[in-house]
Write a structure and sequence with these properties.
By secondary structure, this protein is mainly alpha-helical. Helices cover about 45% and strands about 10% of the residues.
């Protein structure tokens, strides 16, 4: 599993085995063996690889590609799966999403949208943080 993740991440970041080896101060052959599954990086190298690819250590080691083929999410980002909208517009938020964001029955979610990016659900208690993030994005785009 980790060997496939290493190869996918290296390819996604458009790095060669030589470039990864140089950044980790190991030989290209070591990287090749990790990607083939002939050997496994030690914990220190796993931590360096997770940092290099901006993913969590857990996802680097344990991630299995879902049917959606979304790939390993960047650190701090989550893929919770899909939710189907019912006939009356209702949907069930996946359990893992509720746990990660501390959502429970009765919590209010604000639905926001962007024509190009799609929809987002923002817990009401996080709305001020959301507006600060949007303002920063707008300020950066205006520069």
């Amino acid at each position: 599993m980790i060997n496939m993740n290493l190869k996918i991440l290296r390819t996604r970041h458009q790095l060669t085995q030589e470039e990864v080896a140089e950044r980790l101060n190991v030989s290209r052959q070591v990287i090749a063996k990790w990607e083939k599954g002939e050997s496994t990086p030690d914990i220190q190298h796993c931590m360096e690889l997770a940092k290099l690819y901006n993913v969590t250590l857990d996802n680097l080691v344990n991630f299995k590609e879902a049917d959606e083929q979304l790939g390993i999410p960047p650190k701090g980002k989550h893929f919770f799966g899909m939710a189907t909208i019912g006939e009356r517009g209702q949907m069930v938020i996946p359990k893992q999403a509720r746990e990660v964001f501390g959502l429970s029955a009765g919590d209010k979610l604000i639905i926001v949208g962007d024509d190009e990016r799609g929809l987002a659900l923002v817990p009401e208690r996080m709305m001020s943080n959301f507006f600060n993030m949007v303002k920063t994005t707008i300020d950066e785009e205006g520069e």
